[in-house]
Amino acid sequence: MSWRRMMPTFGFPHGALPRATATLTIPAGQSASDALDTADMIPLGVITPGAWTEAALSFQVSADGSTWIPLYDQYGSEVSIPSSAIPTGAARAFSIALANVAAWRFIRLVSGTNATPASQAASRSIVLLGVRA
Questions:
Q1: Rounded CA gap, 71 and 99, in Å?
Q2: In 3-state terms, what secondary structure has residue 52?
Q3: DSSP state letter for 17
């Protein structure tokens, strides 16, 4: 039996899930992006921009789009991409664990950790990739 037959297809033939992208922006001099409403897509990947002020990339979530909470995994670790993994001169793609984001209606990105946010020197556009909800 092939692995494709074992993968869930969510009602689409042969796992052909409809793809979606969204761009979130961290304004110059700030550390938090605008929000993604996940009613339209479930993010599964992120592409950091080629220009990036050295910092981690963390996540905040919200049930209502106005009260933001730092995102932690089931082990109590902050969900973030460490600054050492994000080059300052090249774009890089990262996967997002579905278990970390599937339950949340709104998601936004934070430059730095939630305990120590870091302002970006210029406006930064970050692409989220996923499947349509």
A1: 11
A2: coil
A3: P
Measured CA to CA, the distance from residue 1 to residue 131 in angstroms comes to 25
Q: Is the pLDDT of residue 55 over 80?
A: yes
The first and second tokens of residue 62, run together, are 């919200």
Q: For the chain, first and last CA: distance in Å?
A: 28
Residue 22 tokens, joined: 């969204």
Alpha carbon distance 48, 90 (integer Å): 8
Q: Check residue 4 and give its pLDDT.
A: 46
Q: Is 5 helix (H, G, I), strand (E, B) or coil?
A: helix
Tell me the one-letter amino acid at 26: I
Q: What is the rounded average pLDDT for all residues in the chain?
A: 90
d(CA 37, CA 20): 12
Complete domains list, the chain, with CATH: 18-132 (2.60.120.260)
Contact 43, 96 (CB under 8 A): yes
Q: What is the pTM of this model?
A: 0.86
